[in-house]
Design goal:
Helix content: over 70%
CATH superfamily of one domain: Tetratricopeptide repeat domain
CATH architecture of one domain: Alpha Horseshoe
Order of helices and strands: HHHHHHHHHHHHH
CATH topology of one domain: Serine Threonine Protein Phosphatase 5, Tetratricopeptide repeat
Radius of gyration: 29 Å
Structural class: mainly alpha
Length: about 260
Amino acid sequence: MGKRLLWRVVFVLMCCLLWRPWAVAEDFMAKGQELEMRTLYGPAIAAYRRAIEEDPANAAEAHYRIGMLSNKLGNSEGAAREFRAALQVDPRHAGARQALAAFHLNRGVAARRQQRFDEALHELQQAVSVDPGSSTPHLELGQTYEEAGRVAEAVQEYHAAVQADPKNLAAQLRLAQGYNTQQQFALAVPAFQAVLAENPDKAEAYAGLGIAYFHQGQHEEARRAFDMAIRKYLAAGRRDLALRIKAEADALLPPTPRGPARK
């Protein structure tokens, strides 16, 4: 009887030892969430730290929450470190992946606006590497390549952006324009048409479509596309752009001669 009791005590103690880290970590996570809801960010971070100490193997969510709170407190570098730590624990943590990609994305866009292209490319390449299935990092990286004069690489990124999200019309339009720049007019036509299928008022797409049609010898189609671009710009109150497109169209396609005037 004594041996049975002893084995039961040992069994219970072993269960407690195995259970304790997970259970205590859960308690600290719950405490952290409660403090976070009360906007007590410092104490919430401390609670999440304790959860990590108690159960580091399952600490991805705690790292992620510390990262989000660090962002709110203006510590973006510290936030990025926590997001990376979360992904080391759980590479499938979607929130950490998106947040870390956004960190690099914001830094890359800011650098591009100041024409620091090497820095911008590095940050945006990091964003793509962290979250390759997201459309926006590819789009922003493509735009940076384009502004740096690297059109072929820009087109590759625009294509990747469209593959990730076919409804991303900004990426679709830039892809079509990139095809025109590369004189790949047969590819440009369906790309512009895809934009117009979603937004029939997009004057830029009609203008680009006119250029693509013209260079394929489809002059009547080009004329109609240019006319639509002019109309859409006028409807949007952009007479300046309408006049510019008209000048470009007239340079490519001389106006159709009218019949003799009636007396």
